Amino acid sequence: MTKDNDLAIAGNATELPRARPAAIPEIHPLPEYLATGARKAIYDDTKAVLQVPWMGVVAMAFAHYPRFYESLWQGVRPLCLSEQFISACRRLRALTEDAVRPLEPPAIGTRLTLLGYAPREIAQIAEMIEIFSHGNFPYALMATQARLLLEGRALSNDRSTTPFAGRHGTDTEVPFVLMEPHHADRDTRAVFDDVKSTLGLPFVNTDYRALSRWPSYFALAWGDLQAHLATPGYAGIVDGVHQALVETALALPNPGGLRPEVLQAAADDDATAEEVREVVRLFQWLLPGLATNVAFFRAQMVN
Known about the structure:
With about 300 residues, the chain is an all-alpha fold. It has helices spanning about 35-50, 55-65, 65-80, 85-100, 110-115, 120-150, 185-200, 205-210, 215-225, 230-250, 260-270, 275-300. The chain has one domain (about 30-300). The relative contact order is 0.22.
């Protein structure tokens, strides 16, 4: 850990500064239950390769541009199946979880017990957090490589990888249920509104909707986290996660041979490269913070 809670990384990550889009672009994620045909097939393949139980909003928003997402996914797919990629995701997760410890996330288990939560329910919350702790980094690396390419940055020339053997995904029997705004009572909708207002986003990420299956838990967890969101220490952590993602995305091999001109042309086929680039920038900006927040929630459960 370096000074001011910055993540310790090698090299120079100034090649892709973290930047929130000046105007939040419209996004059009196609929900999994509405996906059919080729779109459903690429959704199913994405989840199978990444070994995750959900299609992230980031990937669904990208898939609104089918030629773009097909080109991106077919390019990153061989990498996602590699030992190098899985090891990189594990390192990024460990760096992020180490970085939040100085924030001293308050333990939440006793408070949940006092509310009436049984040990099994608390364990299920922890399992849900584990799903996102594992799954957010593959999506974040994908978004980072997409942004690099759309901004004309070349990835590695190294195309050699070692296949990953075995399973790295989370095995859990916890149903993956999302609390949608129209499912929620007034108090939970107020928390959702607070999440959107605080984070400056027009939507609530999947992670928060899944954890809001336990509304009283998420209200507590979000309240603890919110106290840190405007602090320099928190900002330093998120910037460090971003920097680590950029360094990793540039250092990883490129077995799919992804090139800027190919992805830019695919984006132009769907809309314009500029429109797609703004959507990609939005998610590449928000995902380091989301990963940090999930690490905070995990630390609450283990403290």
